[in-house]
UniProtKB/TrEMBL annotation:
InterPro entries membership: His_Pase_superF_clade-1, His_PPase_superfam, Phosphatase_SH3-domain
Species annotation: Sphagnum troendelagicum
Ranges of biased composition (kind: Basic and acidic residues): 43-57
Annotated stretches, region: Disordered: 1-57
Protein name: Phosphoglycerate mutase family protein
Lineage: Eukaryota, Viridiplantae, Streptophyta, Embryophyta, Bryophyta
Length: 284
């Protein structure tokens, strides 16, 4: 993810569609169980992959409803394979898919949780991408598996894919999407390499779905990267649960012949309590 224009400029034929603005959102998961209840850690055999708390699910639900109410028209969600992120996606997607008919405002107001939501799952399509995984080092994963080896696989780190798919709203999964990475990155990833991975993945996902507004649900480090790559010199030092960033760019054209022509990314998110992000420029 960077600020440079994508592709090479050339004259467009008169039949080309007009430019449009693409929005990219990058969101952190909701409250995780091991943070709310440290006593859970020694009781589980998967301490590195905690689920959401009930509060975390409600946080995700409320953010999803807000994104829907604000009318950003998100039609594509791509999510990290870690359980807390997929559970977050399930709540957000349900909120984004609330029925949209003459009584839609009533449904949105009456639905206090995803349990009683009436949805149209054709509105948003979801896929899981290993490229959005947590940083694979001891800084990010506080309780890695015992006997850890370098040759990690997705089954070693995450719930089986079919079980993760089952957590998503019925009809929302897009099985046709190929992930940018086929497995969780190997253990021992440096922080700088992980940051570059996030940046590359955000850009790749946005380019793949250049005709859509996209939400990536990932981890706190990923949300930080989505700011720092667009604002060189800025340091992100706080990302609350379910905080998200929003960036936009103009898509001039995207075709098999000419490729993608897109303008620079512009970050729309400001630091502060409203966004849940804390960032600033620091000098020595």
């Amino acid at each position: 993810m960077d600020g440079g224009e994508q592709g090479t400029k050339r004259n467009e034929p008169s039949s080309s569609p007009p430019p449009h603005v693409q929005h990219l959102f990058v969101m952190r998961h909701g409250e995780r169980l091991d943070d709310a209840d440290p006593s859970w850690v020694p009781k589980t055999d998967r301490p590195w992959d905690p689920p959401l708390t009930e509060r975390g699910k409600q946080q995700a639900w409320e953010v999803g409803k807000r994104l829907r109410t604000e009318g950003w028209g998100i039609t594509r969600v791509v999510v990290s394979p870690f359980l807390r992120c997929v559970q977050t996606a399930a709540q957000v997607v349900t909120a984004l898919c609330l029925v949209d008919d003459d009584d839609s405002s009533h449904h949105a107001a009456a639905s206090e949780s995803s349990q009683d939501a009436v949805i149209d799952p054709s509105k948003v399509k979801v896929s899981i991408d290993y490229g959005l995984s947590e940083l694979m080092n001891g800084k990010a994963i506080r309780n890695p598996p015992r006997g850890l080896v370098d040759s990690s696989t997705e089954l070693h780190w995450t719930v089986p894919l079919e079980e993760l798919h089952a957590l998503l709203p019925t009809g929302s999964l897009d099985n046709s999407v190929q992930p940018t990475l086929s497995a969780v990155p190997a253990w021992g990833e440096t922080t700088s390499a992980g940051h570059q991975r996030y940046s590359d993945i955000f850009q790749s996902i946005a380019d793949k779905f250049s005709g859509e507004n996209v939400l990536c649900i990932s981890h706190g480090e990923g949300v930080g990267v989505s700011v720092m790559k667009l604002l060189p010199g800025v340091v992100v030092y706080g990302v609350r649960y379910c905080a998200y960033t929003q960036a936009r760019r103009t898509i001039h054209s995207h075709s098999q012949i000419d490729g993608l022509r897109a303008g620079d990314w512009e970050l729309l998110t400001e630091p502060g309590p409203a966004s849940g992000l804390l960032y600033d420029t620091f000098t020595d």
